[in-house]
């Protein structure tokens, strides 16, 4: 009687476990009879990453590039790869992570990359994230400042014969300026 009850409980737990699996994984465990065997099959299949999986993750990490994504997205991607690698037992030092991060940045980040390479003390990932995002904000502010148009209004020196005509032209020019300070000479 006791063994029949254990068998029923085992089958209930097995059924609940199988029901929680994705449709791709279910075929792996359908032929297994007990909860313990289902768990062992899943553990052997997914808990021990293969060497190929670890090498693939390392390759993705070494080839990660910022490109056009935001710095936060890029660093989040790096952190996800590092976390996954660490969960496989392949630990990376913070120096390794820093080198992977700066390797994926473009030349416009050379200033921050040089300072990160020449640090005497190790850096945490949070500090790395903060410093690189701050540098990205600095680059954006420099880009905006250098792309602002420089405009000037030309005022001709009037001679005594044309002073009334020049006064009318200046008033017309002033009235046709748009909100950004550019002259709109179309009348």
Range of strand content: under 5%
Q: Domain count, please report it.
A: 2
| Largest beta-sheet details | none
Our Rg estimate from Cα atoms comes to 33 Å
H/E series, N to C?
HHHHHHHHH
Secondary structure tally: strands: 0
Distance between the first and last residues' Cα: 102 Å
How confident overall, as mean pLDDT?
81
Task: Give the % helix.
Answer: 55-70%
Q: Uncertain runs with pLDDT below 50, 5 residues or more? A: 170-187
Overall, the morphology is elongated
Q: If helices are DSSP runs of H or I spanning 4 or more residues, what is the number of helices?
A: 9
Supply the helix-strand structural class: mainly alpha
How would you sum up this structure, described in words?
It holds the Pfam family Retrotran_gag_2. It is built from nine helices and no strands. The protein is mainly α and 187 residues long. It has two domains: 2-47, no CATH class; 52-146, no CATH class.
């Amino acid at each position: 009687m006791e063994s029949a009850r254990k068998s029923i409980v085992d089958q209930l737990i097995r059924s609940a476990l199988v029901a929680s699996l994705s449709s791709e994984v279910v075929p792996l465990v359908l032929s297994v009879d007990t909860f313990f065997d289902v768990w062992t099959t899943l553990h052997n299949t997914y808990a021990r990453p293969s060497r190929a999986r670890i090498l693939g993750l390392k390759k993705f990490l070494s080839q990660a590039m910022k490109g056009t994504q935001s710095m936060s997205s890029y660093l989040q991607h790096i952190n996800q790869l590092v976390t996954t690698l660490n969960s496989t037992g392949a630990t990376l030092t913070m120096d390794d992570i820093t080198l992977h991060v700066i390797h994926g940045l473009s030349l416009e980040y050379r200033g921050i990359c040089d300072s990160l390479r020449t640090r005497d003390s190790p850096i945490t990932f949070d500090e790395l994230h903060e410093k690189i995002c701050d540098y990205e904000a600095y680059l954006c502010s420099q880009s905006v400042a250098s792309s602002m148009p420089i405009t000037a209004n030309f005022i001709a020196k009037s001679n005594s014969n044309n002073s009334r005509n020049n006064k009318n032209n200046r008033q017309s020019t002033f009235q046709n300026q748009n909100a950004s300070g550019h002259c709109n000479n179309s009348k």
